[in-house]
Design brief:
This protein has about 140 residues and is α+β, with helices and mostly antiparallel strands. The protein has one domain: Phage tail protein-like (STM4215-like, 2-Layer Sandwich), CATH 3.30.2000.10. About 20% of the residues lie in helices and about 45% in strands. The protein contains 2 helices and 8 strands. Strands 1-2-3-6-5-4 form a 6-stranded mixed β-sheet. Strands 7-8 form a two-stranded antiparallel ribbon. A hairpin with a 2-residue loop joins strand 7 and strand 8. The longest helix has 15 residues. The radius of gyration is 26 Å and the shape is elongated.
Length: about 140
């Protein structure tokens, strides 16, 4: 489920920007501009019965290519706000991003977004009962 959220974010970024997207650390041959998607926190809370709430806090880092870092990062952050407001999940529905905010630190844009949604726990259907025989007695007689 968590990887599905990251995959959906990656698809949205690819459609909007077309830049390289990484989910693991790259130590060399880094081509800018590019994005890094990092899961900061994930949690599951039981609500009622088989219903759960899944929470995912994501940080998307953007490494700019121009010398005007602040302007480029501000522009990209505005585009991120729009393209990540709703991401398409693998079931064809949409999940809304909340608590979006960003900061630029050491020339890198850090864009934060949360994706919270409800899921239902899938259980195996119970096997139906087989034949049952019932015997009762009324007034001392046996009926089957």
């Amino acid at each position: 489920m968590t990887n599905d959220v990251i995959y959906s974010i990656s698809n949205a970024l690819d459609k909007e920007f077309g830049y390289e997207i990484h989910m693991e650390e790259i130590k060399q041959d880094l081509k800018e501009p590019c994005f890094f998607i990092t899961l900061l926190d994930s949690s599951t809370q039981i609500l009622v019965g088989k219903r759960y709430e899944k929470r995912h806090q994501i940080c998307i880092q953007y490494l700019p290519e121009s010398k005007q870092v602040q302007q480029e990062c501000n522009h990209v952050a505005e585009r991120l706000t729009l393209c990540l407001e709703y991401i398409e999940d693998l079931a064809g529905g949409f999940v809304r991003g909340t608590d979006m905010h960003y900061q630029v630190t050491d020339g890198v844009l850090h864009f934060f977004v949360n994706y919270n949604f409800h899921v239902f726990k899938q259980t195996k259907p119970e096997e139906p009962m087989h034949d049952m025989t019932l015997q009762t007695k009324l007034g001392g007689e046996s009926n089957e």
